Amino acid sequence: MNDRKVTLNLLLCLVLLQTVISEDNGEDTVSQAHRNILEMVFKEVDKLTDDGIITIDDAINALNVPSSITADGSMTDVEYLTNLLHQFEKEGIIDGQLTLEEYINSQASLSANIPENGLFYRLVRQKWGLN
């Protein structure tokens, strides 16, 4: 299996994992260590405008869309990245502008279920497609 297929498979697994985890209606909180990780990754994606809001332009600038996703022509890079942003916005207003708080809130269940900081860091970066 090539690296891109592995990346795609990991991304899909993470999306499914987050979907299952987020069905839990418990009160999940984000530890300070995980909040720091989320803030660092958020800033890495927001580096184009550095305005505290991730937009499609930030995502296009910072992320590499796996070619296996767009190779068959069923989805463009912009469509894929828009869908990715909407996954994080599901608890807030879906407007294509992801705020830090929306992002942190969307990751609370994942944070609660992955207490180990190193693993959480790798999973968060992997979800964004960051190396």
From TrEMBL:
<feature type="signal peptide">
    <location>
        <begin position="1"/>
        <end position="22"/>
    </location>
</feature>
<protein>
    <submittedName>
        <fullName>Calcyphosin-like protein</fullName>
    </submittedName>
</protein>
<dbReference type="InterPro" id="IPR011992">
    <property type="entry name" value="EF-hand-dom_pair"/>
</dbReference>
<keyword id="KW-0732">Signal</keyword>
